[in-house]
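Dear all,

This email documents one entry for the complex benchmark we are building for the journal club exercise. For each entry we list the sequence lines for every component of the assembly. Then comes the predicted three-dimensional structure of the complex as a token string, followed by one or two observations. Please use this as the template for your own entries, and keep the labels exactly as they appear.
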Amino acid sequence: MYQFLFNLSGSEIIATIFTAAVILVFILLFVLFAVWFERKVSAHMQDRLGPMRVGWHGVLQTIADFVKMLQKEDIIATEADRKLYTIAPVLVFTGSFAAYAAIPFSSKLLGSEVEVGIFYLLAVSSFVVAGILMAGWSSNNKYSLLGAMRSAAQIVSYEIPTALVVLSIVMLTGTLSLEKISQLQTAYFWNWNIFGGPEFSLAKFLLIPFMFVGFLIIYISTLAEVNRTPFDIPEAESELVAGYFTEYCGMKWAMFMLSEYANMFAVSAIVTILFFGGYQSPFGYLGNSIGAEWLVPFEQAFWFIAKGIFFVFVQMWLRWTLPRLRVDQLMTVCWKYLIPYAFLNLIIVGFISLL
Amino acid sequence: MALKTETMILNMGPQHPSTHGVLRLELELDGELIVNVKPHIGYLHRCFEKHAEAMSYPQVIPYTDRMDYLASMYNNFGYVIAVEKLLGIQVPERVEYIRVIMGELQRIASHLVAIGTNGLDIGAFTPFLYLFRDREKILSLFEMTCGARLLYNYMWVGGLSHDIHPDFVRLTKEFINYFRPTITELNNLLTFNKIFIERTANIGVLPLDTAINYGVTGPSLRGSGLAFDIRKEDTYSIYDRFDFEIPVGQGLVGTVGDSWDRYYVRILEMEQSLRIIEQAIDQIPDGDVKAAIPKRIKPPKGTVYTRVENPRGELGYFIISDGNLNPFRVKVRAPSFVNLEVFGELCKGHLVADVIAILGSIDIVLGEVDR
């Protein structure tokens, strides 16, 4: 898309700004949808109706809430470190926004074709930790501090199993580029990495169980990275009130929520790209069969967003079903179970791909 | 040279989502480890005992409602039994049966909140709402009977404020049939959930001797393995006519007396309460719901102490009468207050996250702690 806009306008700056704007609009729309969706999912799981008043089945509820948020007084506690306190939400949001730059929504709609895409994504998403630590520290509140410390420990730990699973995919595909990984799993769903990749050989069938294990590991650790139940310990409502953003209100608070929901989609997108064919359709393209080539990128974007939203839905489903773990148990899950299994999985996948 | 370290004081409450009201906990932390806990109470003190001295005997009943507001029926029950004993009157059979049914329905309703909030504190939001949905059904039965959903003022000295609704028996039976399967559903969803067990098994173990030394009663004591229930030990009303068991903690998933045991005892108790209601509901005799007592209740001089098995433990009323219209003194032995004492002991050496799991398993109601 950047290339298209660059050709159209002839100016790098305009192309960059427009590309960023499209992604930002997508994030905002997605968050508006996801907040409503989460409330509806939780409500229907709990024998409730959820928001019903604003618009059809409450679809406009999030917009109403957002308007309310804009009108709120921006309070900064007297004892807070004002500079860090103001920077923190921006930093957190920047981290999750920047991640979207490398995500290919379709073969045409992608912010930037980074050759080391997956590496960039992992690096940028851990950027969020700095913001969270800043928020916790600068609030000068013990609950915030505890929440921030927990969060930092958790996110840093769970990067490792994520990275190990990513490595196994990188070994299989031989590329770090998200765009190329998506391209490889083309056409039909049995070519997706979760089904052993596009190459039809003995290795494909041997890989299937290990790819499932890899998928489970990365899905669990991404749940932890975005602080969702059962790993929502940093913001454990019943223990730490709201964790690192306890003291925040109004738009600053909204920034944290925005980035939380943006992250939910971002990690789902990673899982989709690595294991579920990225933007590839599971059944081939309508555009190709009726001869309308221009339709294909739109179909791809549809499939990508649909897959992403499905994984976001699973996250919500888990959240409203499971209780939460304790801090030490969380670390145990990561270091004693996920990392060894991820290592083992990496080695086995390595051997199989040598076959 | 060792680094200089110091512990951190964390003030939990009185405005905190999971202190079950206005309890303030002063936690002394080493990192996230609890070194010491100091509960501060009194934020909800309403001078119940002093008020009672200025009221006539029947006027005290609405005040007892407001102590343990999740088990109002049972607070009424204990108080009216005490006054009736002081007066030396016998209430009609029908009243006794209805009182027991109401009391046991109240016990289920109260345990539903206890279990639900215990799960909620650990992060399980959905079971909490399922249990509140079921509690609503009990509250509707109460509403049908006396018009109130929380503070009933239903049991009066010498009788009841209203007779039961004609549909009450049928609806109660329907409720029993509806509720049995939901206990199974709850067990599948929360009780035997791996994460829930991880969070509560071996956490806040209360050894039996400590429990007895602190005077802990109710499900918390039974969770430690002692089958002590006043309904059996010092039977009152007509509890001796029913066949039920006293569930105790057995350490199914951890040590005897851990948070999970206290939690599970409540679930088993709900099943026993259902059994009692089933037996009682068919036997309600016909008759009046008010004994023939004088309009002005004026007990003779003397003292009385009665105790009943409230959903949270031993609820005792000590009443001194000097022969006037007002009681000279009403002293309440509140189970939540006594059970809270042992809380600090349970938390030592655990993490901050465990504090709320333990507090939820003790199940206190601040209205009763402070009175």
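Observations: Residues 93-121 of chain B form the longest helix (29 residues). Strands of chain B lie at 8-12, 24-30, 33-40, 155-156, 159-160, 302-310, 313-321, 329-333.
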